[in-house]
Amino acid sequence: MVRAGLSPERLALAGAELADEAGFDQVTLSALARRFDVKPASLYAHVKNSRELKTRITLFALEELADRVADAVAGRAGKDALTAFANAYRDYARAHPGRYEAARYRLDPRTAAASAGVRHAQMTRAILRGYDLAEPDQTHAVRMLGSVFHGYASLEAAGAFDHTDVAAQQSWAWTLDCLDTALGSRSTP
């Protein structure tokens, strides 16, 4: 029997909330069952297994992050777009650490191709059009931006920047200035 009020979407949202509270690795069917005061077996009417639950949370997080980034970059170009994109990414990682971690969960190729991860790549490439980068530089730049944003957000979340008098925000602004300069220097003549 399907319990009233439970659905795959509601489980994904509850899983995302649990991930923010306890960490994505702590999201299990048992933990969610406790949240809904049901037996774990009753959740199998809505999701096949833990892998499907984590995939649904990942898809939810990717969509949510893509929407925030799209709103942030709308109508912007060049460094302004780069900064808005980066800030939306970092702000999401800080506000939703578990969901951010979920957005890094490895999806099978078919699921990944149908996910909002594609929108992330498209938005990154749209920003890079303002820098007039030809291939393969554009692909290198997509990978560089993703690496820098993820690395910074991960280090900041781990408290790695708490040990100096220089504010993390100052370093973030400096990093974005450097990225803008590096991307501008690679522009096609």
From TrEMBL:
Keywords: DNA-binding, Transcription, Transcription regulation. Residues 5-65 form the HTH tetR-type domain. Pfam families: TetR_C_33 (PF13305), TetR_N (PF00440). Residues 28-47 bind DNA. The keyword Metal-binding does not apply. Gene3D superfamilies: Homeodomain-like, Tetracycline Repressor, domain 2. InterPro entries: Homeodomain-like_sf (IPR009057), HTH_TetR (IPR001647), MT1864/Rv1816-like_C (IPR025996), Tet_transcr_reg_TetR-rel_C_sf (IPR036271). It comes from the Bacteria. The keyword Lipoprotein does not apply. Signal peptide: none annotated. This is TetR/AcrR family transcriptional regulator.
